[in-house]
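From the thread on structure requests for the teaching lab: each student submitted one protein with a one-line request. Submission from student K.M.:

"Model ABC transporter permease subunit from Streptomyces peucetius, tokens only."
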Amino acid sequence: MADTLKERAPGARTPRTGAAPDTRRRAQRRKRRLAVLFVLPALLLLGALVVYPVVFSVGRSLFDASGEQFVGAANYTEIFQDPATLKAIRNSTIWVVVAPVLLTGLGLMLAVLTEKVRWATAFKLVLFLPMAVSFLAAGIIFRLAYEQDPDRGVINAAVVAAHDTFEDPAAYPTARARENQGLAGTDGGPYTTTETVRPGGSVTLGFVGVAPDAVPSQARPAAVPGPGADGIGGVAYLDFAPGGGGTQGKVDPAEKGLPGMTVEALRDGEVAARATTAADGSFRFEGLSDGEYTVRLPAANFAAPYQGVNWLGPALVTPAIIGAYLWVWTGFAMVLIGAGLAAIPRDALEAARMDGASEGQIFRKITVPLLAPVLTVVFVTLVINVMKVFDLVYIIAPGPVQEEANVLATRMWLVSFGGGNDQGLGSALSVLLLLLVVPAMIFNVRRFRRSRS
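Reply posted by the TA:
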């Protein structure tokens, strides 16, 4: 009875079961509104910088260059009919196939090797430093490095130095025969005497076009040697006296010989004897049979100096730019793969070593399979990046070969703003580039989500 009265007392309240759920729903709505309020600036920025340009580009791609006449899919059809655009698609394909594969392989190799060196951190820092350089600066650096003139391009300077180590350069690349002095030939050689000579005779071979500082230091005043009864003598000399004076076609005391020249005696078009000029420019053919001979100086004496490789020519410009891209991004691939390598359980590697596996077997059968997820992410990220490459191609490729180096991004810019003034076709190219990039981006996002779950 007392309990019943207590339950019915005036101050007692019966709990309302519906109040708590309503309160929770109102709290959730407030949280959603608050979340939308915080996210709204980012959504507006995303819409203005990403969504609107994409929608606008899709719409603009359906109109002509003026933007007034609707042409439908005509711009997309032109993409696959324009030779320059097809070349850009081909180059983009080369980039996608070559650059990510090389970068992933280099990153893997360097990540494994840096684990075994003492100064691994410093080594990684040096390789990663190019990532701090803008593509504009990297493009200027490699544009200069790829210059064909060895005096300006450091790469060709090294190539020329290596070439000249194994092959002697021409002795007198600028020399040319004195006109009307008995030598026939064109600049750059070969030069042949216009008159024949018999054993016991001699010839004088006068040249001009050699700067005084280009004459070898061992050169002596020119002198004509005695030919001998069964030989032919002669001299190759600089037919120019410092300060002027002297007689053209004759050896004067102040004129220097040209040492180191190869000279040949020809009979019936065949080489009968060969000699090299001495310090005073003299030479002698001995042991010749009786007959008429002509004297020839081969073109090798006058060949232009080796100038290295034309890195920025039509044939090599794309590989050269890919090389610059590798320089910038190798550190990125190495650091990411190195982080994955550090997460590999060491007990698996030690167990393999205890079982007698070689380092090569451990690398192929344990390290690479365990790193497969990281390698995939690095590879796909690089694929996305090379599809959009623009700066290096535009800066490094010279104007005359720009079309040979173009990729989709540079072609899109040139068509739209670089002189083409056809923003309809440019928008179509941008949509095509977006369609090519999106699948790789979706694949990467899914990989990240699976790795987090």
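TA comment: Confidence is low (pLDDT under 50) at residues 4-9. DSSP finds 14 helices and nine strands in the chain.
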